[in-house]
Amino acid sequence: MGSMKVDELALEALRAGMRGAVLTSQDEGYDDARRVWNGSIQKYPAVIARCSGTADVVAAVRFAHETAVEVAIRGGGHNIAGLGVCDDGLMIDLSLMKGVHVDPRARIAHVQGGCVGADVDRATQLYGLAVPTGVISSTGIAGFTLGGGFGWMSNAYGLACDNLLEVEVVTAAGEVVRASEEENADLFWALRGGGGNFGIVTSFTFRLHELGPTVLSGLLAYPLDAVEDALSAFHGFMASAPEEVFGLAVLRNAPPAPFLPADIVGKPILALALVHAGGVTEGERALAPMRAHGTPIADAVAPRPYVQMQSLFDAGAAPGFQNYWKSQFVDRVDDKAIALLAEHLRTMSSPISDTKFAFLGGAVSRVGRDETAYGHRPARWILNINSRWDDPAASADHIAWTRSYWDAMQPFYGEGVYVNFLGDEGGGRVEEAYERAVYERLVAVKNKWDPANFFHINQNIRPS
């Protein structure tokens, strides 16, 4: 519990050199600051540097070198593996760096590294502009973007990393550099999908797109006995839907939502989340085939503020619960795969778990395979098994159920896994997140920018 002794003179120098607070386990606010979204992760850094800007980040990196402590970088703290915190080391905490500056004429946004999706959406939607920011509004922009970043508008406009124009980075050497297509292009390439291996991004510059403030979006809900039929229809619908459509299937127990019948609450359902990234009239036509299928127990698709859609699943992703995920890209979706999804909906070990099954195509698939480090551009479906519970003593049972489920789906997997959905699964799984040539290129960038592996509390790409 933060038991590592830190040189007091170095600590006082860090406090003097930072505008933000420097916390140890003796300080008020330490316990709140060390916590991350996944309640299964309970770690105690020796020091937390709560940075107020880039200069504070530089001071923290230099302190880490002087004291030879391990470093974890916290952006939004939403990572499933809990990589934003470490035991007995230094947490460099960017979560107070929440500035967003939007230039509506140039259609760009400058976003600090501690922002979450809601911070960005709130600022950009003032001008009817947006960039992909995930499907949970509390997701941190930094980790999300560095790993790729797909959200409700990705089929129309690509991943977050595809819309990145420039970054400001604090390197392992404690230097501040900029990276773009024109400057430090190798670093810029690696940061678009290669995760937190290459530096601390303190500012992102994004290209924005016209969207909202009102979009046609919402949920179609189906009861358990209609899940297989509705999933099959959803699979066919997404394969031919316009690129403006993003669809996410969520298999879960019905929450106490106002649009759901009271007698269905707590029972297994399929919720199809649909968003049309365009005009409402065009959206009505595009979503009509799916909305006309079967007899849903609720059709809550309607014109609504984009920021409302962005936060629709937030209640089911509140911080502090125990969480364990398994994920993979899916290559084949047939009746057997759909039957397995439905079967595991019926047998969920926790009433607050869910399975998310999303379609990725359109603009995501048109980016060249060597243009960014994000891999597996041809993949169309991604499965994410989100197990979630509140009693730590029950962890073994829920983890075993999740692994059994993931194993049962093996015949339908394609190559690779999305790096942002990886837990603490080892280096082999990290390599699976990239095609071989991409991984080797990432190692070369790591050799140049972080040869001592200073940044290693991440989905680590080891220097050679």
Short characterization:
The protein has 464 residues and is an alpha+beta fold. It has 15 helices and 19 strands.
Structural write-up:
- The strands form four sheets. Strands 12, 13, 14, 15, 16, 17, 18 and 19 form an eight-stranded antiparallel beta sheet that branches. This protein has a five-stranded antiparallel beta sheet with strand order 5-6-10-8-9.
- The chain has 15 helices and 19 strands.
- The chain has 464 residues and is α+β, with helices and mostly antiparallel strands.
- α1 (8-17) runs antiparallel to α3 and α8 (227-240) packs across α11 (335-346).
- The protein folds into three domains: 8-93, 2-Layer Sandwich (Uridine Diphospho-n-acetylenolpyruvylglucosamine Reductase, domain 2); 100-211, Uridine Diphospho-n-acetylenolpyruvylglucosamine Reductase, domain 3 (2-Layer Sandwich), CATH 3.30.465.10; 214-421, Vanillyl-alcohol Oxidase, Chain A, domain 3.
- The two termini are 33 Å apart.
- It has helices at residues 8-17, 30-34, 54-67, 117-124, 141-146, 154-157, 185-191, 227-240, 280-291, 306-310, 335-346, 363-366, 395-408, 427-432, 436-449, and strands at residues 22-23, 47-50, 71-74, 90-93, 100-103, 108-112, 129-130, 164-170, 176-180, 200-207, 209-210, 214-223, 245-253, 268-276, 298-299, 302-305, 322-330, 354-359, 381-389.
Q: What is the annotated CATH architecture of the largest domain?
A: 3-Layer(aba) Sandwich
Kindly report how far apart the N and C termini lie.
Answer: 33 Å
- The proportion of residues in beta strands is 15-25%
Content-based structural category = alpha+beta
Q: Let me know the largest β-sheet.
A: 8 strands, antiparallel
Gyration radius, rounded: 22 Å
Secondary structure tally, helices: 15
The chain-level mean pLDDT equals 96
User: Mind telling me the CATH class of the largest domain?
Assistant: Alpha Beta
CATH topology of the largest domain: Vanillyl-alcohol Oxidase, Chain A, domain 3
* Overall number of strands: 19
The low-confidence parts are: none
Categorize the overall geometry.
globular
Instruction: Work out the helicity level.
Output: 25-40%
Give the tally of structural domains: 3
